[in-house]
């Protein structure tokens, strides 16, 4: 699994957005996380700092122009309700399919991230509401990397 050097800055809230976990179709046949505009909703996430020289690598890792578009002017709110402009990746509508389920290892990785970053219980429950599917390809590089991370953090 590819990783980039980054630093956790803070948790944030997103107004009028709903974190949808399963809609973005992945080339491996599973669903991946994305956000969807939704009036009256709020979702939560984490803001990280990354050296700008690493943005090209992040584009590749996140699948820019392969189902995700990068938004460099995305607004989130910090815990004091101050607006912050961040970069995020959004699933392109043509690449979204609500019937796609996440692989179990990806689902656990998302859940562990939400729990370890102390996101609100509502956000954690939103992740738990999805039923993951087993990845039949046990030697998948991304699966092995995710399982290694989960083991390193003692999740399980």
Structure keywords:
156 residues; globular; 26% helix; 4 strands; 4 helices
Short description:
The protein contains 4 helices and 4 strands, in the order ββαββααα.
How is this structure best described in words?
It is built from four helices and four strands. It has 156 residues and is α+β, with helices and mostly antiparallel strands. The mean pLDDT is 89.
Gyration radius, rounded: 15 Å
Tell me about the largest β-sheet: 2 strands, antiparallel
The chain-level structural class is alpha+beta
String of helices and strands: EEHEEHHH
Secondary structure elements and pairings:
Layout: E1 6-25, E2 31-50, H1 55-62, E3 68-77, E4 83-91, H2 104-116, H3 121-128, H4 141-152
Antiparallel strand pairs: 1-2, 3-4
Helix pairs in contact: 2-3, 2-4
């Amino acid at each position: 699994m590819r990783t980039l050097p980054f630093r956790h800055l803070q948790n944030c809230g997103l107004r009028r957005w709903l974190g949808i976990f399963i809609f973005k179709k992945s080339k491996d046949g599973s669903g991946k996380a994305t956000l969807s505009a939704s009036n009256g909703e709020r979702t939560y996430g984490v803001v990280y700092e990354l050296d700008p020289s690493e943005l090209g690598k992040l584009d590749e890792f996140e699948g820019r122009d392969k189902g995700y578009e990068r938004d460099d002017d995305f607004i989130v709110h910090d815990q004091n309700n101050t607006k912050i402009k961040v970069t995020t990746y959004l699933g392109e509508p043509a690449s979204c399919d609500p019937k796609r389920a996440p692989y179990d290892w990806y689902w656990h990785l998302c859940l562990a991230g939400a729990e370890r970053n102390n996101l609100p219980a509502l956000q954690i429950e939103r992740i738990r509401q999805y039923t993951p599917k087993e990845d039949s390809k046990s030697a998948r590089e991304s699966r092995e990397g995710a399982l290694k991370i989960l083991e390193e953090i003692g999740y399980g």
